[in-house]
């Protein structure tokens, strides 16, 4: 049995270490006894600003994980000022790391004293793995260095072992900052479609999907080297020549588990033009042809995907319009990298559109726009705003859907009839991400990494979102969690069966059951062994992470 010792030793921290500060939840200034009107005005204004949240040691992106329902502790800004503010899962102290040396010192400090340790980068994690109650936090957000090279040679490689053009980024670089740094040098990089999500933390370590995935693979497929502070406080390089077991695990094994990544090197690619297409398929709410249209769409996904088409779509069966009208909508967009001819892109959609056009009451809108480069496309479309919509309560449930299913005769209709059994309040949406296939599938032949092997068979990463009101009682919150975990995720799993495929660990249910199989499939035993080798005492324990089953839910006690 092993316990993490909590606050006890931490009171001395602020005196001994200049980069350490003690923490309260961001909204504490809006509640007694810490109420401060001016400070509360600022916090209120910034509440949904993801850039601000990323930088705050006293916040993560989702209110869900700032709260600690098991202890009935929360600090919602929505609550009345008289309601006391609980610390929840906000760390007690934070190390605002600026260098590898700071991280090493923090890791050694925590290890020596048996502290509960957590790494926060942007705080976007949907499983709450960057928020841990009664913990010492290492905040990597401020580490922003980037360096591009024409021919990256991994440490320990032979003389002719150059891997070609690459970028090395430090732990706190965001997806937007990465795209911008690389785009400015007329290069492209596989990275996701978000602004303030971190590139080197949970994103790449969890696999990392992107609208450029079908073109060039997962982000982690393109990670050439990691510099890592391990649980013993040492700084090590992990690549295919040295510490290759760690290198394998860091590409898909999940953030916060094997050490603290100080920087990562990612392959870059020649800039390329892209065709951007949008589609909007609608009916009046209640027209059964909507579901038939969804079936036809899903059956067409593998074909679009085969041409490197990638993107995002939104299924909203109860789409509120003005007045009392309601539509059913399927909207989305796909990009086709390294293509310049809009007519060719439309040809890919035409077989689908002719099937949709004969369905009564189904309306199809389609546009396509050529962009001269990925950079210009990002600036004008994907990353037009500079932040992401966060600052609310959110849980996800998800499943990877296979290409085989969608190509089989009844597969698409089986998927759609399952979707149809979900409850759709006005505006409630099922999200489809077409971010696999193409190079993601092909890389399965050449790249051995920890990502769930199901990724190589995936056509669509599909998820639902669930939420509750800040005023919801604990029982109401629990009802949403239970329904998600016991009813809705099992529905998604049932389409292909619980043993087939899996779920993307970065965008999944925070209460996922049988998470080892869901997130890693047959890779789990190897990951577990590597975890024991590099972190035998369990310094880095995250929710539903590798090895977390040996600990209680909060990672306090190795007593299960
Ligand atoms: C708006 C939004 C858009 C998204 N878009 C995409 C997308 O396009 N593609 C995609 O694949 N995913 C996407 N995601 C999911 C995203 O990959 C995860 O939320 C991921 O956990 C974010 O990593 P982070 O480091 O920024 O977040 P954090 O919450 O700070 O950290 C996540 C996990 O990684 C650990 N960690 C962070 N930094 C380090 C480090 N340096 N070393 C070791 N461990 C570390 C943390 O301890 C935690 O366990 C999106 C999420 C959101 C909210
Ligand atoms: C969001 O937060 C960032 C970082 O604190 C800040 O620079 C920016 O001005 C904020 N945006 C708005 C709209 O307040
Ligand atoms: C949780 O805390 C709130 C606010 O302090 C209180 O009103 C509520 O009764 C508590 N609920 C439980 C189940 O203890
Ligand atoms: C990566 O980390 C190592 C070790 O701290 C450092 O020497 C190197 O300069 C870093 N690279 C970048 C681009 O920051
Ligand atoms: C773009 O396509 C051309 C022709 O198929 C190919 O030669 C080139 O390598 C591609 N560019 C990139 C960056 O993949
Ligand atoms: C799709 O069509 C619906 C109904 O005509 C419309 O309300 C909606 O704005 C359209 N959405 C997009 C993204 O074009
Ligand atoms: C919407 O429905 C309500 C109740 O059925 C009705 O009173 C109202 O007039 C309707 N509004 C419109 C714009 O049709
Ligand atoms: C649980 O989820 C299903 C599917 O979305 C829904 O039909 C049902 O109403 C939900 N039950 C509860 C209690 O929320
Ligand atoms: C949240 O709760 C408040 C107060 O009970 C209520 O007015 C509001 O409609 C609720 N919002 C949602 C989305 O349920």
From TrEMBL:
This is FAD-binding PCMH-type domain-containing protein. It holds the Pfam family BBE. The lineage of its organism: Eukaryota, Fungi, Dikarya, Ascomycota, Pezizomycotina. Residues 1-16 form the signal peptide. Belongs to the oxygen-dependent FAD-linked oxidoreductase family. Keywords: Oxidoreductase, Signal. It comes from Penicillium egyptiacum. Gene3D superfamilies: 3.30.465.10. One of its GO terms (molecular function) is FAD binding. Residues 85-271 form the FAD-binding PCMH-type domain.
